[in-house]
Hints:
With 596 residues, the chain is mainly α. It has 25 helices and six strands. The strands form three sheets. It has a two-stranded antiparallel sheet with strand order 1-2.
Amino acid sequence: MVDERSSAPESGHWRSRWHAVTAAAVFTAALAGCGGSGGSDTPSAGAPAAGAPSSDEPAATPPPASPPPPPPPPPAPTTQADAVRLADQASFGPTEALITTIKAKGPGTWVAEQMALPASSRYTSGNGPDIHKWTSSADFCTGKGVNCWRDWYSTEPLLWDFYRNALGQPDQLRQRVAFALQQILVVSSVEVSGTYGFRKYHNNLLDLSFGNYREVLRKVTLSPVMGDFLNNANNDRAAPNENFARELLQLFSIGTCELTSDGSLKGGKCTPTYTNDTVRAYAFALTGWTYPAGGATSYGCYPTGANCRYYDGDMVKVDKFHDTEARDLLNGYKLASGHKADAALTTVLDSLMAHPNTAPFVSKQLIQHLVSSNPSKAYVARVAAAFQAGKYQSFGTGVAGDLKATVAAVLLDEEARAATPAATAGKLREPVQMFTGVLRALNGKTDGDALSWQWGDLMRQHMFRPPSVFNYYPPDYPVPGTQLVGPTFGIHNANTALGRLNYLTYLIDWGGTPAANSTAIPATGTAIDLTAFAADAANAGTLVDRLSMLAIGRTLSATSRAEVIKAVEAAGTNATARTKAAAYLVFGSPQYHVQR
């Protein structure tokens, strides 16, 4: 939104007034003037027709056959605003071609087709498991060059894959769901090293994005990367580490407070869902798992009878390390004396999937990551019902935890698709989605290199390096000065607000990063291409409208539009300069950075 108190900027100074954006201003300016719910109640079925004969009074003459019901009306055309909104919610950013596709197909068909696409996005870069097979006394990286740590230990090669896929692969919804899952079921290369292990972990999330949440929990529990990160690998029954068990309950499944089906606190207060005794019971239940076979060290494996650290596969059980005592789990589930590790895992998963908290706890977080930071209770309840039933319209298998049904319920709900979003609807675009959204909209390219240590660190969202198991930001982070939560505001401040504008300057004025300056493999650099938009530069109004319809799905308000047009005209007659001015002001507006 342009500062409507200012006059048109002079040539060469049209940006200066934009460099005072703060977190509160971004949020409140974008929500100003918006209100009301666009949803409508579904009419109830009609009552039986009056005067129908009773069963003991047969009619002398059969009544004429009723005419067939009229066909249902065709779905309302998908508007530009809703197509852009769905692209923001279910992809890594709208493009003109994607908007055209969504408008032609409609949200339901487009979502169904996205779910039917194969997993074309894969993590393939980086090196293999040799780091965990090294038995020499010499350092593994000796003689392997200056990029040994990057290529064998870090997640930087996966970051390159992530951004390439986000920009170019067609399975956009699968990628967005996997991105949400990786921020709920967190592992971090800040604490754990091994490129090949993270590659497997995140490919599993891609594969399971439209599977079942129970299987997601199973795979995560058996992941050796997670086992290393949260201390469940080689967890001994004699003194079980409680770290993974606690986060499995607190962050991955049921949360800390008892909830109603709509995600609100049961009884209006926080009643704990578990005690420390519960955590210990789950920790004992999950003992007895070690790394898959294949690892080796120069000093052998510890403890004796366990496997060395190795990430290429699921963890395997070692019965002698598993606690076999009878244990009480949640929801009435119990472990009998003498049970085995694999049976205990099955019971653990059963107890969590049956818990009344799991559906609303997981559903609300998926809504927050994909659609809105402050969903209504009714919205959460509807999505939780789809999670519990495993079915939403034609989506899902009918098995509780079905993610196709859950994600479809998130995206196709009346609150997500409302023509007039409620005043509290929407979310602050997180940095990763800002990086990809601008690049996709402006026909850009990236190999990801500039979006890691340079922009990712600056914006506090360096892919695959969240600071802890609590992700980059908490789901209940309060927006200062409001009664709302805004998870992404947990990493948003005056510096990162200016960083958003500086990112636009980097792409639009500085030309991004040339391939020659990139360290990615292969190096293509990071840049945008404004050529297609420059064709409209002669008419500032046409240019500004085209960009704003792409960025936010509507034209700017009359006053803001007039100010931006003045700034474009002040840039001179050169088509490139005018296009740069328009792109900066539209994509720098609060309306873009708060998804509505």
